[in-house]
Specification:
The complex is a heterodimer.
Chain A (H helix, E strand, L loop, with lengths): L10 H10 L8 H5 L3 H27 L1 H7 L3 H34 L2 H7 L4 H14 L4 H13 L4 H14 L1 H10 L4 H25 L18 H32 L3 H9 L1 H15 L6 H7 L5 H13 L2 H11 L1 H26 L1
Chain B lengths: L1 H12 L12 H45 L4 H14 L10 H10 L6 H6 L19 E2 L2 H10 L9 E10 L5 E7 L8 E9 L10 E14 L6 E12 L7 E2 L5
Parallel strand pairs in B: 1-2, 3-7, 4-6
Antiparallel strand pairs in B: 2-3, 2-5, 3-4, 5-6
Helix pairs in contact in B: 1-2, 1-4
Classes of the chains: A mainly alpha, B alpha/beta.
Chain lengths: 360, 257
C-alpha cells in the first residue's frame, strides 16, 4: 500500500498523519507512506516548520505583551498564574529526574534481564514484578512503553501489568516527593506504598485469572532497536520531557483553575462527606492526569479533604488517568484499555480506602 | 526543551523562584535546568545524525514491509505504523503547552500569592510545638506565624509587655476590616495557606490590599473567628505601621523546619 504513494508528498500529508497519530483504528494510507524516503524528507520539512512556528509564536507574544499583561492583571488571573507556574516549577525537577532514570533503564539495562529476574510461575511473578516497580523509578508516561517492551520480550502479561501499575505509584522518586509534600505525615508515604503495591498485585492476579491474550495487542517494534545508546538515551529523554511536560502543564492548568476559580465551598461540601470526598478526589485524579512525581504536592494543597481521600487521589492518579488511558490504548490496543482502566479505577479506590482505614 | 531549561536556570539564579516554590527546591531547579540545557542540543544532534542512517534503514524495512502487506492486511500491521509515527514526531501537539508556563514566567512573572487567595482561604494557624525564648531587643522582630501561634495557643504569655515588629501584606475582608497576612507553604504556592492577623489601634487611614507593611504593636487578648473556616484569628494593637518593599522570600517557611 505504501508503494501507491508518490515519493514526493507534501508536508500537509505529514501533518495529517500527526493529527491522527494518537489513536484511531482507521489508519490511512498516508501514515504508511510516511515510511518511504520521500516522506522522511517531508518529515524534515515539518520539523523546520515547527521551529519556524515556535519563533513566530515567540515574536508574536513579545510584540503583543502589553495587552496580554493588562488582560492578566485581574487578581483571579494573577493567582491562577502563580499557582499554575508554581505547580509546573516544582514538578519539573522531579519530572527531569524521573525521565533521566527511565531513559537509563530503557536504554542501558537489557530487557532480557527483566525476563531472567522474574520467577517462571505467573502467580509468583506478579508480586515480584510489583516490587520491581517499586525499585525502578519512572513516571507513568515512561512505564507504559517499558511494560510494552516487557510483554514483547516474553514476560507474563500479568507481571508486566503489575509492573505497569506499581512502577509510577510507589517508586523511590515518587515516594520521596510524597514525603516532601507531606512533611508531617510519614504514614502517607507508607500508605501510598502499601496501597499501590496491593492494587498492582491485585490487578496482576485479576488479569491472570480473567484476562485474555486477544484483548492485548503487544507492541511489535522495539523503540530503541538499531540505534546507538547515546542517541536512544537522549531521544528518550527528549520524548519524555516534551510529552510528560505537556501533560504536566495541562494538569497544572486544571489544578490552578480548581484552586482559584472553583468556589471554595463546592470543594468543602464534597470534602464534608467521607464518601463524596473519596469519590470527588478519585474522579479528580483521573481528570487532572497529573504526573505521579508531582501529584503529591497537588494532593497536599487540597487541604479541605481527609487524609484517606488524599490517599485515594495518590493511588488512583498514577494508575489510571486520562493521559494514561490514551497511552495504554496506544500501546496495548483500545479493547485492552477499555477493560483495564475501569477495573483499575475501582480496585485502586477500594485498595486505597482499605489501606487508609488501616494506616491513617 | 532548551527554553524550558533556560527559564528554569533564570528563575533559579534570581530570586524569582521564591515567589512560587520553597527555597529548598533551588538546587533541584538548577540541576533540572542544566540537564535540559545539555539535553536539548544532544537530542537534536543525535536526531540529526541518526536521521540519515534511519532513512536508509527505513527504505530497506519498507521493501520488506511491502512484501508482507501484499499478502493482505494483518492485525499487527496497524500497530507498526503507530509505533513508527511515535518515532517520527516525538513532539506531539501536547508539548506546545510547555510554552504557556514559559510565557507566564518570562513576560508576566506573576507575583506571589496575595490578598485574593488569602481571603478565599481560612487561616491555617497550627499549634506550635514549643515556644523559643524571644530575643531581648525592643521591639522584638517576630514572624507573623510565630506571633499568631503564641497569641492563640500560649495566650500571649511570652508576649506580655513586649513590643513586637511584624511584616506581612495587607488584606481586607468584605466589610473592609484590615488583616495582616503571611502565606505559609509546605512546598510550592499551590499548597500555600494564609495565616492572618487582625489589626486594630493606630492603623494607617488608607490601606491598599497586597501592600507590604511592617507594623509595630503590642499583644492584645482580643480574638476573632475567620469567617471562612471558623478558626481563631488573634488581634494586634498597632502603634506604628510603615510600608516596606516585598521581602525576598514572600512566604513563611517555618513549617519546613
Amino acid at each position: 500500500m505504501a508503494t501507491t504513494r508518490p515519493a514526493l508528498t507534501t508536508a500537509t500529508d505529514d501533518r495529517d498523519a500527526i493529527v491522527r497519530a494518537p489513536d484511531g483504528p482507521e489508519r490511512p494510507a498516508e501514515t504508511a507512506g510516511e515510511r518511504t524516503g520521500g516522506d522522511r524528507m517531508a518529515g524534515d520539512g515539518w520539523h523546520v516548520n515547527s521551529s519556524l512556528a515556535l519563533i513566530t509564536v515567540l515574536l508574536l507574544v513579545v510584540v503583543v505583551q502589553g495587552p496580554i499583561r493588562s488582560a492578566l492583571a485581574a487578581p483571579v488571573m494573577q493567582s491562577w498564574m502563580t499557582v499554575f507556574v508554581a505547580v509546573v516549577l516544582q514538578a519539573l525537577p522531579f519530572l527531569v529526574l524521573g525521565v533521566l532514570l527511565s531513559a537509563v533503564l530503557a536504554v542501558f539495562v537489557p530487557s532480557s534481564f527483566f525476563a531472567r529476574a522474574l520467577p517462571n510461575r505467573p502467580g509468583l511473578a506478579v508480586p515480584v514484578a510489583g516490587m520491581a516497580g517499586a525499585v525502578l523509578p519512572g513516571c507513568e508516561c515512561a512505564s507504559v512503553p517499558v511494560a510494552g517492551a516487557l510483554v514483547r520480550r516474553g514476560v507474563t502479561p500479568a507481571a508486566a501489568l503489575a509492573f505497569l501499575l506499581s512502577a509510577p505509584a510507589i517508586n523511590p522518586v515518587v515516594l520521596t516527593a510524597t514525603a516532601v509534600a507531606f512533611p508531617r505525615r510519614p504514614e502517607m508515604v507508607l500508605g501510598r506504598f502499601a496501597a499501590g503495591l496491593l492494587v498492582a498485585c491485585a490487578m496482576g492476579w485479576l488479569w491472570q485469572r480473567l484476562g485474555r491474550t486477544d484483548w492485548l495487542r503487544p507492541p511489535a517494534h522495539a523503540r530503541y532497536d538499531g540505534r546507538s545508546k547515546g542517541a536512544a538515551f537522549w531521544d528518550s529523554v527528549r520524548h519524555d520531557v516534551m510529552h510528560a511536560g505537556g501533560f504536566l502543564v495541562l494538569g497544572a492548568m486544571a489544578a490552578a483553575t480548581l484552586k482559584t476559580v472553583a468556589p471554595a465551598d463546592w470543594l468543602r461540601t464534597a470534602a464534608g462527606n467521607p464518601f463524596t470526598a473519596v469519590g470527588a478526589l478519585a474522579v479528580l485524579a483521573v481528570v487532572l492526569s497529573i504526573c505521579s512525581e508531582a501529584d503529591a504536592f497537588v494532593a497536599a494543597s487540597l487541604t479541605q479533604f481527609s487524609l484517606t481521600a488524599k490517599l485515594v487521589f495518590l493511588v488512583v492518579g498514577p494508575m489510571i488517568d486520562l493521559k494514561l488511558f490514551a497511552m495504554q490504548a496506544g500501546t496495548f490496543g483500545r479493547g485492552f484499555a477499555l477493560r483495564f482502566a475501569p477495573a483499575t479505577f475501582v480496585l485502586a479506590i477500594a485498595g486505597a480506602v482499605v489501606t487508609g482505614a488501616v494506616l491513617l | 526543551m532548551f527554553l524550558v531549561g533556560a527559564v528554569l536556570l533564570h528563575a533559579g539564579f534570581t530570586d524569582l523562584y521564591l515567589r512560587y516554590v520553597k527555597a529548598g527546591l533551588r538546587p533541584l531547579l538548577l540541576a533540572a535546568g542544566a540537564v535540559l540545557m545539555v539535553g536539548a542540543p544532544a537530542a537534536v544532534w543525535y536526531e540529526f545524525k541518526g536521521r540519515r542512517r534511519h532513512a536508509q534503514q527505513d527504505r530497506r524495512e519498507d521493501a520488506h514491509a511491502h512484501r508482507v502487506h501484499d499478502d493482505g492486511p494483518d492485525p499487527g500491521d496497524e500497530h507498526d505504523h503507530r509505533v513508527d509515527n511515535d518515532h517520527g514526531h516525538r513532539e506531539a501537539r501536547i508539548s506546545w503547552l510547555l510554552l504557556v508556563p514559559l510565557f507566564a514566567l518570562m513576560l508576566v512573572a506573576p507575583p506571589a500569592l496575595g490578598s485574593y487567595s488569602a481571603m478565599r482561604t481560612g487561616t491555617a494557624l497550627q499549634q506550635p510545638y514549643g515556644y523559643a525564648k524571644l530575643p531581648a531587643s525592643d521591639p522584638v522582630p517576630i514572624s507573623l506565624v510565630d506571633y499568631a501561634g503564641r497569641a492563640v495557643y500560649d495566650h500571649g504569655r511570652s508576649l506580655r509587655n513586649r513590643k513586637v515588629r511584624i511584616t506581612g501584606f495587607v488584606a481586607l475582608d468584605t466589610k473592609g476590616a484590615p488583616y495582616l497576612v503571611r502565606m505559609a507553604l509546605n512546598c510550592c504556592a499551590a499548597d500555600a495557606q494564609p495565616v492572618k492577623l487582625a489589626l486594630m489601634g493606630d492603623i494607617p487611614p488608607v490601606l491598599r490590599p497586597d501592600a507590604w507593611l511592617q507594623v509595630t504593636g503590642v499583644y492584645t487578648p482580643k480574638q476573632t473567628k475567620d469567617p471562612v473556616n471558623n478558626r481563631p484569628i488573634p488581634y494586634l494593637q498597632v502603634t506604628e505601621a510603615k510600608p516596606v518593599p516585598t521581602p525576598r522570600d514572600p512566604y513563611d517557611e517555618s513549617w519546613n523546619r
